[in-house]
Design goal:
elongated; single chain; alpha+beta
């Protein structure tokens, strides 16, 4: 492929400038040879050979060498060394043809030093090698100039010092450019978005690894290819989809959403942004591709949660509205038992609606660092009885036996009684909901050395071990079991665990399919908190003393 059709990044642009400088130098030196004959050039044939070698090197570098591929393959050092050695060769031949050490063209040998520092900044080892080689050539040319004199020695030392100063100066100029380039490369290589840059002809100048991964190609294969070809080569179809906006040559930013179908569905959002201007037209385009699959998934999950929320809130509200209308319009025609049943339904649905609302409110508040909790001694038996009374009628109506088995003289736990009732209610509500008629739900308690334990066990369908952590996530309704005909938002276990952790405790689960579930709430004992407080006060007292 011709050099003009290649996409060029920073180094290849600089290499192109080196080719242009070499062409200008060839023309200038050829003019001198033709104009002065043997006046300045003692051996014209050798000079013509040197210029022919330079012209051939320039043609190969400009039209045959794929510098972009060389850069992408990280073979820049070897390629640059080869070019620099050829540059030194033709320049040395021309210097020899024009007088050797006494030639007025001896400064030409410094050109490879300048080229290696500026135009080949990516191959940093080339500069010291070229500098040492040029200095060695000066020393080798000195004996050919005749007897060694003090003037010749001083001239040689001057040339060597001049070479070192020039090398140092151009290195300092190139070091800043190289640092900026490497910083940009590091930044692009660590971006999670895909980045691709083209020139005005649509040739790819720069690609980061993430864009190459999205396209399923290698960076070195993408650099130098065209984003404007109507028919993409084999394997480049994905890149062509990414760069669809470039083919429109937009003057403003374009945004496209595309879907990649492979082993996994991937949603991408591609932004095409014009870069710079060239005679009123964009000088190139930047394509940024972002993977929005997670955002799409979260959006769908949010929509599903809102649908579940609307359904779950609608159901108790409809019950409340219906019962309220019945009581208002038919209260005189209902006997006492029917009125009590209606009121029971009204209260039950009100409690259900309240639990939904409280769970929603608490789910957001529990994520905050500060959560208001009172610290008091809570009797486990009193806590269990309070929760049993809340669900006794519901369990009886469903045909589930609700048992409270609390041994006497248990030490109290430290916590907020109202919040602990909410915590335990969420566990018992789940147990009663999922336990079939004829089953049993048991609330028991115990105490260890440092923690109290409140256990809620049931004879329901159980939960597969792989879902034991998932059920504690928000909106994980029915994870690991059947959800058919089940009510709720899937917030109860999440709120229960978060409340336990706010108390300095934890909620654990033991379960398997078809063997029921056991949820254990671990809470700090009140006396342990007192001991810790006393120890902390004692430590503070010792430190003060």
């Amino acid at each position: 492929m011709a050099r003009g059709r290649l996409g060029r990044n920073l180094e290849s642009d600089l290499i192109g400038q080196a080719d242009k400088i070499r062409l200008v130098l060839i023309g200038f030196l050829a003019t001198i040879v033709l104009a002065t004959g043997s006046g300045m050039v003692e051996r014209p044939l050798l000079a013509y050979l040197a210029l022919a070698l330079a012209a051939g090197l320039t043609a190969v570098s400009r039209f045959a060498l794929r510098w972009d591929r060389i850069l992408a393959r990280r073979d820049l050092l070897l390629a640059v060394l080869a070019v620099m050695l050829l540059d030194v060769t033709w320049l040395l031949l021309f210097v020899l043809a024009s007088g050797g050490f006494t030639s007025p063209f001896w400064p030409l040998l410094i050109l490879p030093v300048i080229f290696s520092a500026i135009f080949y900044s990516g191959a940093g080892q080339v500069l010291p090698l070229m500098t040492l080689l040029v200095m060695a050539l000066y020393l080798l040319l000195l004996p050919a100039a005749g007897p060694v004199t003090s003037a010749g020695v001083w001239e040689t030392m001057t040339r060597l010092m001049f070479t070192i100063v020039v090398a140092w100066f151009v290195w300092a100029l190139a070091a800043g450019l190289e640092g900026e380039r490497r910083s940009t490369q590091r930044l692009l290589s660590h971006l999670t978005e895909g980045v691709l840059l083209t020139n005005a002809d649509g040739c790819v100048l720069l690609v980061n690894p993430e864009m190459a991964r999205m396209c399923g190609l290698r960076v070195e294969d993408m650099v130098g290819s065209s984003a404007l070809e109507a028919e993409a080569p084999v394997g480049f179809a994905m890149m062509q989809r990414m760069t669809e906006g470039v083919r429109e040559r937009p003057a403003g930013c374009l945004t496209r959403d595309i879907v990649l179908k492979g082993r996994h569905m991937t949603n991408l959002r591609c932004h095409t942004v014009p870069c710079g201007t060239d005679q009123g037209r964009p000088a190139g385009w930047l394509v940024v591709a972002m993977d929005i699959s997670d955002f799409e998934c979260q959006s769908r999950v949010t929509e599903q949660r809102l649908e579940v929320l609307a359904t779950e809130l609608k159901s108790p509200m409809a019950y409340v509205e219906t019962v309220a209308r019945v009581l208002q319009e038919l209260a005189e025609e209902l006997d006492t038992g029917e009125q009590l049943a209606a009121l029971h339904t009204l209260r039950s649905e009100k409690d259900r609606l309240s639990r939904l609302v409280y769970d929603l409110l608490d789910s957001s508040q529990l994520e905050q660092p500060e959560y208001p909790l009172s610290k008091e001694d809570v009797d486990c038996a009193e806590l269990a009885i309070a929760v049993r009374e809340l669900f006794e009628e519901e369990a009886e109506a469903k045909g589930v036996e609700l048992v409270c088995d609390i041994p006497p003289f248990l030490p109290p736990v430290l916590g907020d009684f109202r919040r602990l009732v909410q915590l335990l209610s969420n566990l018992v509500d789940n147990a009663v909901e999922y336990t079939p008629p004829g089953g049993r739900v048991t609330i028991s308690a115990g105490a260890g050395s440092f923690r109290g334990e409140i256990v809620v066990s049931d004879t329901g369908p159980g939960i597969s071990p792989e879902f034991h952590e998932q059920i504690f996530e928000r909106f994980s309704r029915g994870a690991g079991g059947s959800t058919e005909g089940r009510a709720g938002l899937g917030m109860g276990l999440y709120v229960a665990r978060q409340l336990a952790r706010k108390h300095g405790g934890e909620v654990l689960v033991e379960s398997a399919r078809n063997v029921g579930s056991i949820f254990t709430v671990l809470l700090p004992l009140a006396r342990c908190a007192e001991v810790k407080g006393s120890l902390a006060a004692a430590v503070r007292g010792v430190m003060v003393q």
